[in-house]
Design a protein that fits this description.
It is built from eleven helices and no strands. The longest helix has 29 residues. The relative contact order is 0.18. The protein has about 220 residues and is mainly alpha-helical. Helix 4 runs parallel beside helix 7, helix 4 runs antiparallel to helix 11 and helix 7 runs antiparallel to helix 11. The model has no long low-confidence stretch (mean pLDDT about 95). The chain has one domain: Heme Oxygenase, Chain A (Up-down Bundle), CATH 1.20.910. The structure holds protoporphyrin IX containing FE. The site of protoporphyrin IX containing FE has 18 residues, from helix 2, helix 3, helix 8, helix 9 and helix 11.
């Protein structure tokens, strides 16, 4: 008799979040934004919110690099804060935005949860890392090309640098390697289940940001 083959963790996490992915993709803010129904100010506001999220993701990376669970995921070529800052400098026309922008309530809650996992439960941090960076390497490319066409940004230039991973020549290969890291995350079944649940929470937190953005841009 052959033993049943366990589903790889990377497959488990993708399948468990599939429905929420569809919901996030089809949220009315995303549909309006990518359907050309909103001005560049909405894209700028969205980029501002991402800045708060990625600061929370990337501020703790120096400490996390040595962590046995999160450490392997910390890769300098993924870092997005500098790119977001260039995009926002461009969209605002100066660097003054740094003192002016504020997180929407859902963004503040999302960033807070990321920080909580980074400091208290690094398996949870991996869930947040996966939800953002693997998404950016995938659907992010769709968003970039629409943003370039809709608001006239230079291809892969200022405004959409967030979506351009200069240090990743082959995104498909990078994603394959990333999934191998996911499959090797230490922990028993219960811990893996907790990480999957945290990934679902990460998707919900993203949907809440879209809701806040929808409300903020329809006023
Ligand atoms: C309009 C918005 C979006 C589009 C068009 C989109 C599109 C896509 C596509 C085409 C893939 C599959 C890539 C592949 O098979 O390699 C993907 C994967 C992914 N997306 Fe999205 N996405 C969007 C929004 C989001 C959001 C809001 C999140 C979460 C914050 C997200 C997280 C992910 C993740 C984690 C994956 C990787 C799944 C895996 O292979 O494990 N996406 N997305």
């Amino acid at each position: 008799m052959t033993a049943p083959v366990a589903t790889p963790f990377s497959t488990q996490i993708r399948e468990a979040s599939h429905q929420q992915h569809t919901e996030a993709e089809n949220s009315s803010f995303m549909s309006d934004l990518l359907g050309g129904g909103l001005g560049v100010e909405a894209f700028r506001l969205y980029t501002e919110q991402l800045w708060f999220v990625y600061r929370a993701l990337e501020a703790p990376t120096a400490q996390l690099a040595a962590d046995p669970v999160a450490g392997p995921f910390v890769r300098p070529e993924l870092a997005r804060v500098a790119e977001l800052e260039r995009d926002l400098d461009h969209m605002h026309g100066s660097a003054a935005w740094r003192d002016e922008v504020r997180p929407l309530p859902a963004t503040a809650a999302y960033a807070e949860r990321i920080t909580e996992t980074a400091t208290g439960w690094t398996g949870g941090y991996v869930a947040h890392h996966y939800t953002r960076y693997l998404g950016d390497l995938s659907g992010g490319q769709v968003i970039r090309s629409i943003a370039e066409k809709t608001w006239g940004f230079e291809p892969k230039g200022d405004g959409v640098r967030f979506y351009v991973f200069e240090g990743i020549g082959n995104p498909a290969a990078f994603k394959r390697e990333y999934r191998t890291l996911l499959d090797a995350v230490p922990g028993d079944d219960a811990e893996r289940l907790r990480i999957v649940e945290e990934c679902k929470r990460a998707f919900s937190l993203n949907s809440a940001v879209f809701q806040d953005l929808g409300a903020a841009t329809s006023r």
